[in-house]
Amino acid sequence: MKKNITINLYGTLYAIDEDACQLLEQYLNNMRNYFSQRDGGEEIADDIEHRVAELLSELRASGQEAVSIDNVQDIIRRIGNPEQMDDEAEAEAQSTNQTPPPYHDSASAIYQSAEPGGEKKSWFAGRKLYRDPQDQLLGGVMSGVCQYFGGNDPLPWRILMVILALFSFSTIGIIYLVAWAIIPAARTAEERLQMRGAPVNAQTLSDELMRAANAAADAVNSPQVQQKARSFGGTLVSIIVFCAKVLAIFLLGLGLVTIFCVMSLVIAGCFESLHPEDLDYDALGSLIHYNSAIGWTSMFALLSALVAMGIPFIVLVRSLIKSPDQPHSFTTRTRATLLLIFVLSFVCSIVATAFTAIEGRHAKDVLYDEYVKTHPHHDDDDVVISDGTYDDAPIIDTAYDANPAAAAAAIASDTMPKPSTAKAVRVAKEKAKRAAKEAKDAAKKAVKEAKKQAEKAAQAEVDAAITSAVGATDAEKKD
Amino acid sequence: MNVDNAKSQMRKGMLEYCVLLLLSKEACYANDIITRLKRAELIVVEGTLYPLLTRLKKDGLLSYEWRESPQGPPRKYYVLTPEGRIFLDALDAAWGELARTVALVKGMSPQLTFDSSTPPIDVKSQD
Fold first, then answer.
1. Cα–Cα distance between A134 and B94 in angstroms, integer?
2. ipTM of this complex
3. Minimal Cα–Cα distance from B123 to chain A, Å?
4. pTM (2 decimals)?
């Protein structure tokens, strides 16, 4: 249902829809301005208005009561726009993008309103900030801002807006609402041109009008129709869907990046030159080194997880950046195939991950046993003995304190309870080493002492022998 | 397409002549002229007519008078002035010459020599 108004053309009244009237008015004004710079141009404009009136009469005579916007578009297409009417060379010369030549007073009214009134936002490379009602998701704010800054595609702006909104809670939403209220919408052709920063003269105005008329004819996209078609609930739903899509894309993107990182770690782990004794037991690299199947299964798990995450990612991104002239992004067959691949990869990733985990656990246990058996001593180890802060170490500590030799022997013969961490084992080994060393040193010391004593004793004996020998000789001399 | 371009250029040249031809028979108003020219497939966009008519009127080849119509607004009926009639005669002659030139060029293309059967035409005197 549309509002209908009555217009008066040369004394005859016509009933015309409101939007049709607006379009017609713009067209006639445009025509008038275009021809006003010509000699006799006013008459041409009058003739055209007469023609329009005639066509409207014909319409009414054929039984149609009200003139609709389709009729007006038909009329415009029939009569044509000024460029199609040029039969003089001066038309070509004047339709350049120079500043508009001085007009007659009646014609310049529309241009006076185009002068910088100063009540709008600041100038930026000659543009004015408008909302764009022809390309609006909510209020056309993002679209208008995007055009103000010279961009062509409002989508990245919208995504940015949604992400900001998610992270700043309601602040961005309030800013958006304020902007929606303050920034005017570009409704007339002239305003649309200013929004894009295009020069405003007769040529571009008529171009813009024709473009608007044709666009309205091709799709049901005229601002009024779209506004009326959107209920509040519908808008809300579309916003929520949009936000959800952006969020999902964001999370999936994170997941994909994570998978890539893990994959690179796995690959690095496979090719690293391995000294198993240098690595922690949990290193994937040593596991793969032990059982190459682990490498394969883990890569498989990662790849299938990649596919499982990548498919919804791509689908969502495509649905967001779909251009309007692509009716559907995927055929049914493609959709079914993608769904199948997604399910398969999802299942595979889970199975492969489980398999990798089981196999890896087993491998880890085996490796651990091997390590413990083949490496009792370690002269290269750069280990700092702690003061007994490990959980398992106290067993060895107390044993060491009580009886160092016995503890060392017990560790060497593997009868001590095994600590579960590798470091505790190393600590234990080091302590045993120390104990042995100390024992050795003590023994050495003891030996030295004994030697010394023996030497002393021997020396004393020798002295005594000499003394007695000397005494005996003296005694003999006296006789 | 270049053919369409060339065609529209040719039509533009003929438009003035055809309009004057129509008006030489009877006074018409814009709608009439448009209908007939459309039937002859000479114009596509109606708007091309109005600047042309105004220019012809400015040059004094046409004049118009207002007549009331049974429905709708009053109509401008265009009529040929005496100067217009003289101009039309000149255009008639010009058109004949053009047609003959084209025919000659077409006919001459297989053989480029004159022989006594074809009447000698002085091509240079045609403008």
1. 53
2. 0.71
3. 29
4. 0.39
